[in-house]
Amino acid sequence: MKFAASLVVAFAFAPLAYAQQQGDVTNCTIWEWDKTVDGYIEQYPPRRVSAGETCTGSRNCAISASGVEMYDWTKNVSGLPYGYFQAVQAGLDEEQSGQEWSFNDSVLGTIENIMELSPGTSAYMNFSALRYCYVGTTQNCTGAVENRTRVEVCEPMYRSTQTGEDDDDYVLIMGGSYVLVNISREEVDDYDDPYANLVRSGAASAWYNEAFVAAVVGLSWFLLL
């Protein structure tokens, strides 16, 4: 199974989440980009991406992280639904005078890194992904959120790396930074590998979760009935 296919399966949840939220949130259909504010980079909250490890030798030891993480677009106004990213996409396209401008609402990206532990130390690895943010205002709103409400919207940052000759032989690498979090030796067993249930598929760094894929396939059949 290719990584790209996993990405499509994961994206299938976005419209469903959007539909589920429409009954109890504001419906704003327009987002106007404030181009007087330059785009800027922020970080997502850190996530643990490795098991806890202890370096017991006399030399530095390797600690590694290898898996995938899903990052969704963010907004600082809670009353707007997930599907409001479509208004953001439209606002960016319009401001670019018809130029295609991609705003990524969700990215399933590869986590892959190796760091060094000093002898006698214990730690796990955290990863803080990057997001690129814009500022704009709402329009054509019904509900609690008013027109001209200032909204920060951010999309996950990544790069695409080709892993083979076919167009779908690629992986998405999340942008961000890794850091070691020191713990005691006694705490190491409390931190299992967060990707223990992921299965490597084909190309390097391509992963999927068998249980997750089975659940999505089952849901798809249910929705078609």
From TrEMBL:
Keywords attached to this entry: Signal
Region forming the signal peptide: 1-19
Species: Lineolata rhizophorae
Protein name stated in the entry: Uncharacterized protein
Superkingdom of origin: Eukaryota
Pfam families: DUF6060
